[in-house]
Design brief:
Chain lengths: 247, 321
């Protein structure tokens, strides 16, 4: 069994979101970077669990980023995985990233490609589906459970107002969200071991991006909260009914 | 430009998110001097011609009951064929769960630039630029799409449904449907309740409610308002509420018209999942709770006193005894 987990580097969830260069660039100064939580908590941890169950499993991580992502990749390796591959390029749009991952995946011949549900910076929720299409593989999106029985996978995914359980044979691409696994904290042994795990750097395949970011905007500030006295909740209901007309 | 809107359905009914996508597609066609058409895969119990009132002139149907379930790979091939036979230049999806499964695949297949999570009509004054949500609702990015075919997945609840008159012509599309590689074995839905991602009103509870036994009033208020219920992450992590109610950065992101937060502090990760709500109401006993900064209306008070009184007032308003 060979598993590939896609890892992305994102600003910490508490990072201040601001832009420079005439609102053309994310203001990265002083920003703490983390592994995209969906990649780490759900995709990676589920893959590690599968490897724990079947130690012959080969688990690789892939990221499409410059050398500044190395600490993030090492952090991911501290949780688990045999080696990491970094496609050495600044990332462009989802299609560009997906093309790089698909090219790595093709060479590696993986049975499962896991991605997170989306990254918390660009919220595209697109890379998994694009990789699947480029590899012409089935894709199950927004999965909350993943079980393996030989080469048959049983996957539960979110649907509007509920869940659906699907069956598919490997190879397969799956995007992961809450429910797949529980967050883990790397231990000392993992952190030490990660230092010597292979981190292969490969050059990007020739691809063009399909979209470009022209500029960023921040939402207009809220007008401020209208407070209603605690002894008069009926007034709040009246405002919601008459002012907002929402109830 | 000719616009093709993907019409999503479940249990025989067209989803509200698709009515938004149809309205968006029609407005987009009008703006670019084109026509809007729809495509539906599978069968529904609704009159498709009536979709004309959302501005589409024609609805293509691939009448194959196997398509009442989703296999993104099969759907993508069918839609790609429809795009080439209709000559559509802009494909519109709702960025709902089906849209997230199909639109990226279609983008890769057609090498068509995708804007996933669009919140407005494109600006066509200088190219084709679409505004989308980024950084979990904390900012927007304007994305330029220069490919010949373009795909837009519009966020649910970002574009209003607009209905007028009109009927659509229905055309059967004979497209070969591949065997499914993903087989649906079971579907479970929380019956009777409003699905969280489609709800117009959401009532949400946090750790301030002390324990699962106190959710009765949250559920009662939600029921009266035809709202869905949600919760903060620690509430789901402590198993006070099911995981699928967890909203925020690492849970579900929602954008209802009205979000009522009870006993939730308003941590930045929580706000990331709810900040696209149109109106936010906060009930918290701590006047310093960060949520008040993101709120439109608020009550500084004890939820256990305030919420029952809100319920009384709603009952009075709705004439419920
Ligand atoms: C990487 C990361 C991701 C995260 N993702 C999420 C996420 O997706 N969603 C999420 O929700 N959180 C998330 N969190 C956690 C987040 O930081 C907060 O810890 C969490 O949202 C707090 O939940 P809470 O507001 O219910 O609880 P608390 O912070 O404990 O707040 C309880 C609130 O209730 C009020 N209160 C207490 N008693 C009463 C009463 N009787 N009446 C009225 N008010 C009362 C208190 O004043 C307080 O403001 C994440 C954290 C990290 C680090």
């Amino acid at each position: 069994m060979k598993i590939l987990v896609c890892i992305s580097k994102t600003p910490d969830t508490t990072a201040k979101i601001a832009f420079t260069d005439n609102n053309k660039k994310f203001a990265a100064d002083g920003v703490q970077w983390i592994i995209n939580p969906y990649d780490e908590w759900y995709a990676l941890v589920r893959a590690i669990e599968l490897k724990e169950k079947d130690p012959s499993t080969v688990l690789h991580l892939v990221t499409v980023a410059g050398a500044d992502a190395d600490p993030i990749i090492r952090k991911a390796l501290a949780l688990g995985g045999d080696e990491a591959i970094r496609v050495n390029t600044d990332s462009h749009d989802s299609f560009f990233i997906a093309s790089q991952i698909a090219s790595v995946a093709k060479q590696g011949g993986y049975d499962i490609v896991f991605t997170g549900k989306e990254t918390i910076d660009y919220n595209g929720s697109s890379v998994g589906g694009m990789v699947a299409e480029l590899l012409d593989l089935p894709y199950i999106s927004l999965a909350t459970k993943f079980e393996l029985n030989g080469t048959a996978a049983t996957v539960t995914r979110e649907i509007e107002g509920g869940e659906e359980t699907d069956e598919a044979s490997l190879p397969l691409v799956v995007s992961c969200q809450k429910g797949m696994a529980e967050q883990r904290i790397p231990n000392m042994k993992g952190i030490m071991g990660a230092r010597t795990k292979p981190l292969k750097v490969v050059e990007p395949a020739a691809t063009e991006a399909l979209t470009t970011i022209v500029s960023f905007e921040t939402p207009p500030a809220k007008a401020g909260v209208k407070l209603v006295p605690a002894d008069n909740p009926a007034e709040l209901i009246r405002l919601l009914h008459e002012e907002t007309k929402l109830i | 430009m000719s616009v093709l809107v993907f019409i999503d359905h479940a249990d025989g009914h067209i989803k509200k998110a698709s009515l938004e996508a149809l309205s968006y597609g029609a407005a987009l066609a009008a703006k670019t001097d084109g026509t809007a058409e729809g495509i539906i895969l599978g069968t529904v119990n609704e009159e498709l011609a009536a979709l004309g009132k959302y501005g589409v002139k024609k609805v293509y149907q691939v009448k194959n009951e196997s398509l009442n379930h989703l296999d993104a790979q099969v759907f993508t091939k069918v839609i790609a064929e429809a795009v080439s036979s209709t000559g559509s230049k802009i494909i519109v999806f709702s960025n709902n769960l089906s849209g997230k499964a199909i639109a990226p695949r279609l983008s890769a297949r057609l090498k068509a630039g995708l804007v996933a999570g669009a919140v407005a009509l494109p600006d066509t004054s200088n190219g084709f630029v679409v505004k989308k949500n980024v950084f979990s609702g904390k900012a927007f990015a304007n994305i330029s799409v220069s490919t010949d075919i373009k795909i837009i997945a519009i966020n649910p609840n970002s574009y209003p449904v607009s209905a007028g008159d009109g009927t659509a012509e229905i055309a059967d599309l004979a497209i070969n449907v591949d065997p499914f590689k993903v087989k649906t074995v079971s579907v479970s839905k929380s019956s009777g309740e409003v699905p969280l991602t489609e709800a117009e009103i959401v009532v949400s509870g946090g750790r301030g409610l002390k324990g699962p036994e106190n959710w009765g009033m949250v559920e009662e208020l939600a029921k009266l308002l035809h709202a869905a219920t949600a919760c903060s992450r620690p509430v789901a992590d402590s198993h006070w509420r099911p995981h699928n109610e967890h909203v925020g950065q690492t849970g579900i992101a929602i954008a209802p018209n009205l979000y009522i937060a009870i006993g939730i502090s308003g941590a930045i990760q929580h706000l990331a999942g709810v900040n696209r709500s149109k109106v936010i109401v906060v009930i918290n006993k701590d006047p310093e709770a960060p949520f008040f900064k993101a709120a439109d209306y608020g009550i500084v008070g004890d939820a256990f006193e305030v919420v029952p009184k809100m319920i009384e007032a709603v009952k009075k308003l709705k004439g419920v005894a």
